[in-house]
Amino acid sequence: MAPEGGPTRIKPKGLADYFEVMTKAVFQSGISWRVVEAKWDGFRKAFDGFDPSKVANLTPRDVDRLAEDASIIRNRRKIEATVENAETMLALDRKHKGFTRYLRSHGGFEETVADLRKRFRFLGDTGCYCFLYVVGEEVPGHERWAESRGVDPGSMRSKRAR
């Protein structure tokens, strides 16, 4: 169960749905969720509806343009990561004959998180948990997961950071 007021779960209809959820997790890392939500329509336009094939083909010039686009969060490293993540997602989708098959090829939640963190940029523990939860994959209960990570389930801040 996600925290009260947490993200809504979806049934991904295609790779773009997975990619959009992952991209939101990437940009929410270290930034207020409200700020990201307020700019999300700009992200949809900037990243071509989250079509990973189109995003994977963005050029350095396109990245420069996006880094100047006030309708999105202009974090160059996260924009570059988004392009790389699109390439990675497409490769895993091809290799496993479906991204859902890739997600379910690890034996469990912890193994899936470890592989996601290894393969995708700017995707940490919280981002992986949110991504997997939103796309409808099996995740541990939120409070249990948060406690195992040293995170206060009410505030989503690390207990070690206080």
Write structural notes for this entry.
- There is one protein chain.
- This protein is mainly α and 162 residues long.
- α1 packs antiparallel against α6 and α1 packs antiparallel against α9.
- The chain is globular and about 40 Å long.
- It starts with 14 loop residues before the first helix and ends in a 14-residue tail after the last helix.
Features:
single chain; 162 residues; mainly alpha; 10 helices; globular; disordered C terminus
Silhouette: globular
N-C termini distance:
25 Å
Q: Please report the number of helical segments.
A: 10
Q: How much helicity do the residues have? A: 55-70%
Rounded to the nearest angstrom, the radius of gyration is 16 Å
How much β-strand is present in the residues?
under 5%
Q: Could you describe the largest sheet, including whether it forms a barrel?
A: none
Reading the helices and strands in chain order gives HHHHHHHHHH
Unreliable runs: 157-162
- pLDDT averaged over residues: 91
Q: What class would the helix/strand composition place it in?
A: mainly alpha
Secondary structure tally: strands: 0
